[in-house]
Amino acid sequence: MICARQVFLCFRAIERVGDKITGAAGPVFVTLGVVLLSIGAACFFEVVRPTLPLPWLMTPICLLITFNLLMHYFWVCIVPPGFVTDPPRERGSGWLWAKPRGRNRPPAGAGVRWSEEVNITTASVTRCKRCKVLRPEERAHHCRICNKCILKYDHHCPVRVNQCVGLYNERHFVLFLIYMCLATFCYAVSGWRGVLAALGLSDDEAWPYYSPPVFFIATYVLSVVLCLAVTIMTSWHLYGISCGETSVESADHEQYRQTAKGRGETFVNSYDLGKRKNLELFFNLGVDGYPSYTLLFPFRIEPYTDGRSWARRPGYEGHLGVREGEELTDPEDDE
Predict the structure, then answer these.
(1) Residue 38 falls inside a structural domain
(2) Choosing from 43, 128, 157, 164, which is the catalytic residue?
(3) Active-site residue 164, yes or no?
(4) Domain annotation covers residue 142
């Protein structure tokens, strides 16, 4: 037991060192991401776009995908995820902020900003054992890298966005992944002729483009790899959203299921309102949300809640099959 404990503490120490290194190198990773996205876009539009059929139709579509990809990446990197100590945010002004569809909107500071047709409960308040601040007991977690509590914490992403993914930027993160899938798929499917030309295997005598052949080949190979990897990641995120859970909650709920099963009970996620409603709430679409076209343009929008009240199944005040004291806390709290 003592040996196992020492091994656990050793791996935990290595994990913390890794967190500090990746946290410090976050700006470098983001800069590298911007450079790769820019080079990939330049190579695509110079080499691949002229070979596409129906250029009058395909060019605007490619521009729209690229614009969404870059803007959602920009938003997810600069929009704070939602720190518990921050006051509730209100909709900003400007053309990049979408106008909500609902006419009977709750007043500022009302908490939930969505429909009255769902059961809304206010989260109880607890004190974080790490940073000592009061926070909603539900769906808020302490990030050991940021050293702050995040509303609707999903995960910390040091490599791609250099910050946490939470209440206010999770929608941008998921849409960035979706448009990354579309962009890399288009590149992989339509760019193979350019690869042959870059390798000197086509009928063309010389490479006629400004983009260096090595850049084009490298971005094409990267697109093929990312298309496979990001599609799997995006599918997993969308599945979690359709089940009404974050990445952290997905792991927690699995443990709740095992605990409830051991007692002969069934765990029920009270946040799960059905796949369609869960997706509507996440993307804030619907009668009292935003129009569906906000998925096709990188608008800024409000989440359906301020992170202190949540939609639940009718008649539920908490998860079924989880008893008081069994709720999982932040991993660092148990040390």
Answers:
(1) yes
(2) 157
(3) no
(4) yes
